[in-house]
Amino acid sequence: MEDALEGFDVDAYAAKYSGRNRTERLLFIAKSCPSLYVDARRALLRELKGGRNMALYLEVLDGEPADMILVESVKRSASQQHERLEQELNSYKSTMIKESIRVRYAPRDLAWWLLQMGHNDLGDFYYQLGDLPAALKSFAQARDYCTTDKHIIEMCLNVSKVRRLQCLCSKARVDTSEYSRVWLILCCCRQVLHAEDIALYGGICALASFKREELKEKVINNSSFKAFLELLPWLRELISDFYSSNYASCLQTLEKKKPELRLDIYLCEHVDQLCKEIRSRGIIQYFYPYLSVDLHQMARTFNTPTPSLEKEICELIDADRLHARMDSYQKVRSQRGSQLGLDVRIG
User: Fold this and answer.
1) CATH 1.10.10 occupies which residues in the chain?
2) Residue range 290-345, CATH number
3) How far apart are the first and last CA of the chain?
């Protein structure tokens, strides 16, 4: 893994993100990848010193000398801002109608000169401070004061900042049968994900779950999703190789990218299972058009030793994903129907 990550640019990777998303990803890399620890920690400390989460700043330093002048200054400023926001909110509650208490989070939707106010301001404050439960509570409380569809959408996006990807490939219990559902959810998450993340998560989940026809319709011929794939040429080529049955090239690229995929905070726990599922689907797809298959030829196509491939095929048979059996002459016979058979010759 160390050699595979040689040349990985932590700063360039982190630059794609902002706020807590950047902080969480840098923290994950620092904790999970020793070879990138120094670069990730340096970038993380730089990010934290420019924010309000002094608790995490001190935690990352882990007893090393801290800029206590900065820490005290940020804490003092945060305390003063919290008091001001609470006072403003109480003032709004007592003097203004419901519409005035509903706050749009995005500053571009408000003039920069408008006072920050209401539940969304408090939610944003807590979010920057690192207090996610309080942030979620404040964002959710704005729901009672939404008077238009736009208000509701803004409120939901604020909540999603806190719960980003909990319904996707995070620590949720995502099993193989749910990868296609993850792909559908990703298509609705463009406001809270980086475009490259949509391409990566969507592309990998599609390979692990879609049938050949679905892959062509929903990914390869999907003009909207293709725009995201253009941001990751290696993934676009990988999907093309898989669809074109260039399995050796596809799986070789996938194996090469594994170390980098494990650096993703949300994808890391699923990398091995996703790659295994993609490989299994490739094996099943290879069988589909043939009546008779020579296993040695198939092993060359997949660039893998024949015994290893034989073992994988047996596992798919045992799992009832490949309808076949191994006979006493070391052949695999697959039945797609009552009249149709498939021989896979091993010797």
Assistant:
1) 290-345
2) 1.10.10
3) 36
Q: How far is CA 5 from CA 2, 34, 88, in A?
A: 5, 11, 49
Token representation of residue 277:
């599922």
Q: Three-state SS string across the chain, please?
A: CCCCCCCCCHHHHHCCCCHHHHHHHHHHHHHHCHHHHHHHHHHHHHHHHCCCCHHHHHHHHCCCCCCHHHHHHHHHHHHHHHHHHHHHHHHHHHHCCHHHHCCCCCHHHCCCCCCCCHHHHHHHHHHHHCCHHHHHHHHHHHHHHCCCHHHHHHHHHHHHHHCCCCCCCCCCCCCHHHHHHHHHHHCCCCCCCCHHHHHHHHHHHHHHHCCHHHHHHHHHCCHHHHHHHCCCHHHHHHHHHHHCCCHHHHHHHHHHHHHHHCCCCCCHHHHHHHHHHHHHHHHHHHHCCCCEEEHHHHHHHCCCCHHHHHHHHHHHHHCCCCCEEECCCCEEEEECCCCCEEEEECC
CB-count exposure of residue 156 (10 Å: 0-12, 13-18, 19+): middle
> Which residue's structure tokens are 């990848």?
33
The pTM is what?
A: 0.73
pLDDT (tens digit per residue) in 89-113: 777 666 554 444 444 444 433 323 2
Q: Give the integer Cα–Cα distance in Å for 23 and 43.
A: 9
Q: What is the pLDDT of residues 204-228, one digit of tens each?
A: 999 999 999 999 999 999 998 899 9
